[in-house]
Amino acid sequence: MSLLLVAAPFVGLVLWLTARLTQRAFRNLPPGPKGLPFIGDVQHASDHGWLASPRRRDDYGELMYISALGQGILVINSQRVAVDLLEKRSNIYSDRPRYISFNEFLTENLSFVFTGYGDLWRRFRRPAVEGFSKSVVSDFYPIQSREAIMLALSLIKNPPMKKHFQRHAWSVILSINYHLPPVESEDAPVVVEIINQVQRVLHEIQPGARLVEYFPWMKYIPSRFAKWKRDAQYWFIQDSLRYERLLSKVADDLAKGIDRPSFAATVIKNQGKYRLSEREQAWLVGNMLSAGGETMSTTLHWWLLALLAHPEVQSRAYAELDEVVGCAHPPTLADLPSLPYIRAMVKEALRWSPTVPFGVPHASSADDWYEGMFIPKGTIILPNMRVINFDTAVFGADSARFNPARYLDEKGQVKVLMEGREEGHMTFGYGRRVCPGRLVAEGTLGIDFATLLWAMRFERSEAAEGELDVNTLVHSGIGAYPVPFECKAVPRFADAEALLKEALDLYE
């Protein structure tokens, strides 16, 4: 009997894999690498660098299908197909991959970004959309302006850049989500805890990180025999307690009549409408925090690399800032409508350097046919943003180049480059899974770019050698970072630092 119990899961696995392989023989799946019998193409399925390469479109076309241990993965290499599937058929392409270790144990399905398409996701989605709508985000302008000035001062005083971008990003998001005071250092305990959590997330969703994703029966192994399971359950409790503490501080303030703008306050005040438990509220607000901080920091890093590689972009930005803002005070968010090149730079930075090359993966919730090709239920869907955002038919022959002017018309005003997409790119995602915090992200980056370029110019370090590498992606989980590079910030005029300090005093 014991031998039968041990053998049963493996017999089931063989039968399941055989069924999937038989399905491929009889169904017209999209083209892709064949892989090995039974196990498929495990090597390429776990290699985001290989999957994201533009060469894959040359090899296989607009759709590429890979099977790895029975799990189907569909890479979309076309804006046309991405819209057809992820938006026009969003009713069956809005789910997320199962991620057993991450969803069922590390977060207990409370991570909004990765929550499966269903009732809980809908209850999460409503407050997220309403909490970051156009009518609300203006409440966050003082936070964004203050933080942009603090970032400029830190870069003038004390490079390197990366740690300041990280501190800045987390400070912005913590202030917007919980109305916490500015984070003084990237070593602040709350920041360290959140960064550690983000790293756990990136590890758990790394392709091939956990065998349980390929052998689901492993989730039934008792925790005492499965360290990965014990660790996940432990960190779920710790992360829950941290999110609940942060939320309770806002709730205590509201009870005392202190109502300051924050996403947490919006969620708490409308809890009757949103129908979320206290833990669900805590995880929703906390996830909007962890989802935004890392991407914002990385976008700033890519933008800085682009400025060094294209000094003419800095020059044009200086001319616009000098004409519109002058040198008597730093720019404010009220200046942004009169700074079309800066706003175009935000769009271009988000297009040119998608920090998550495949976005957050989708999953199909039903079998489907598309242009004669079969897409099985449960297929993981990866829109290849490094190809889609570089489509020459949409973005021009120089789509691989960082060029904010592509978003300007003949009069120098921001134009709509993609019908139905005000942002002019697909980095914020598709369909019902589009990022609800995109307005906050655009506003924060806009005032960041304007303030930093008003105050300083960016140059390569004297010790830097060779050409800048603007093409290589350093992958970590589902994110991608630039190759490390050196840079220095030089004030554009003698009293830049004093004027920044003077402006900061207005927000004290």
List the SSEs and their pairings:
Elements: H1 2-26, H2 42-45, H3 48-52, H4 55-60, E1 63-68, E2 71-76, H5 79-87, H6 100-106, H7 119-131, H8 134-137, H9 141-157, H10 161-178, H11 189-204, H12 227-255, H13 263-269, H14 271-274, H15 278-309, H16 311-324, H17 340-352, E3 362-363, E4 368-370, E5 373-375, E6 380-383, H18 385-388, H19 392-395, H20 438-455, E7 456-459, E8 473-476, E9 479-482, E10 488-491, H21 496-505
Parallel strand pairs: 2-6
Antiparallel strand pairs: 1-2, 3-6, 4-5, 7-10, 8-9
Helix pairs in contact: 6-12, 9-10, 9-20, 9-21, 10-15, 12-13, 12-15, 15-16, 17-20
Measured between the Cα atoms of the first and last residue, the distance is: 72 Å
Domains, number: 1
The count of DSSP E runs of length 2 or more, i.e. the number of strands, is 10
From the alpha carbons, calculate the radius of gyration and give it in angstroms.
Answer: 24 Å
Give the % helix.
40-55%
- CATH topology category name: Cytochrome p450
Strand content: 5-15%
Low-confidence stretches: 1-8
From the helix content, strand content and strand pairing, which structural class follows?
Answer: alpha+beta
Count helical runs: 21
- Kindly report the average pLDDT value: 88
